[in-house]
Amino acid sequence: FGEVISTKSEVEDRIRRAQWAILNPTLRNAHGARYFLTGDDHGETLELTFSNSFVSLQISGPDVADLSFCDLPGLIAGVGSTGNTSDIDLVKNLVATYIKRPSCIILLAVACETDFQNQGAQEMAKQYDPEGKRTIGGYFSSPSMFTFTHSHSRSSPGVLTKPDRIPMGEEPNWLGILRNEKEYLENGWFCVKQPSSAQINAGMTWEGARKAEDEYFASTAVWSGLDELYQKYLRTGNLVERLSHILSDLISKRLPEIQEEIERSIITTRDSLLSLPKPPSSDPRNEISSLLHVF
Questions:
Q1: What is the DSSP letter of 202?
Q2: Phi, psi of 189 (to 5 degrees)
Q3: pLDDT (tens digit, 9 = 90+) per residue, 228-259?
Q4: Could you tell me if 160 and 141 are in contact, meaning their C-beta atoms sit under 8 angstroms apart?
């Protein structure tokens, strides 16, 4: 979809145009995908609200990990008077196609501003990973899911977001989750604080966001007073480090299985090749003579 981008500032516009193309299949079929690269509608006209199609970014560079990352939509319970009720199942089924794969790490994002039990993403993660072995929990900006895949990974943690919006008096409930005393996950729960939309639009950088996050956790009593054991579950940097370790461990554990899968694939391919008929003869006259002789 368009030429290769080498300037980071152009990525957001290209993604927006790709989304516009996906959500307007009739227009895309009539004018082709390139129409959306030059049109000036800015995505204001949308035929669909959700789609099974997705925007895929291939990012390459000297320090880029060999990793697949899927940003899945948040589950929806209602669509309003003008919405399409079929979108509810569409989104649920789309999420399920990813998180049901044993090769995925599920990064479960839970918003602290809403009651934990009312967030559907958590229940869906439990459905496909009942033992919590490949789910990482966290408090994020909104309840949603992300999946990571490297070869065939089998483990992960949860993430909690919007810690600054926890209603007064409900902090103990969320601290119980962070300590992994409630809703147990093998890799635990993390809590992060991301910049608001206004801060992002104002140009807040990644470095600035991490500094603001650090200041928040250091100055807010409910978090700054946590034991040192649980301080490592606060902040985005600690979550990223934990994800890196999980992926490294899983890759190491999977190497023997990957080798076996490759060997089985080679055997299957060889058998398929042997079952193919002989290629056409380069000497048809001699071939006919041989067949007549056998006859």
A1: T
A2: -115, 145
A3: 899 999 998 898 888 878 777 777 777 888 78
A4: no
* Amino acid in the structure at residue 49: T
| Under 8 Å between Cβ of 193 and 233 | no
Q: Cβ neighbours of residue 139 under 8 Å, at least 6 residues apart?
A: 109, 110, 111, 112, 159, 160, 161, 162, 163, 174, 178, 189, 190, 191, 192
Give the torsion sign (CA, 10, 12, 13, 17).
positive
d(CA 150, CA 66): 7
pTM tops 0.70: no
Strands 156-161 and 104-111: parallel
Consecutive H or E run containing 11: helix 11-22
Q: Tokens 């950088």 belong to which residue? A: 205
Six token digits for residue 68: 């697949």
Q: Report the C-alpha gap between 145 and 135 in whole angstroms.
A: 10
Residues 6+ apart with CB under 8 A from 122: 108, 110, 116, 137, 143, 158, 183
Q: What is the DSSP letter of 75?
A: P
Q: CA–CA separation, 186 vs 208, rounded Å?
A: 31
Question: What tens digit of pLDDT does each residue of 23-67 get?
Answer: 888 888 888 888 888 877 655 677 888 888 888 888 887 776 666
Q: How far is CA 267 from CA 258, 259, 279, in A?
A: 14, 13, 21
- Chain centre to alpha carbon of residue 73: 9
Q: Which of 183, 238, 249 is nearest to 214 (CA)?
A: 238
3-state secondary structure of 285: helix
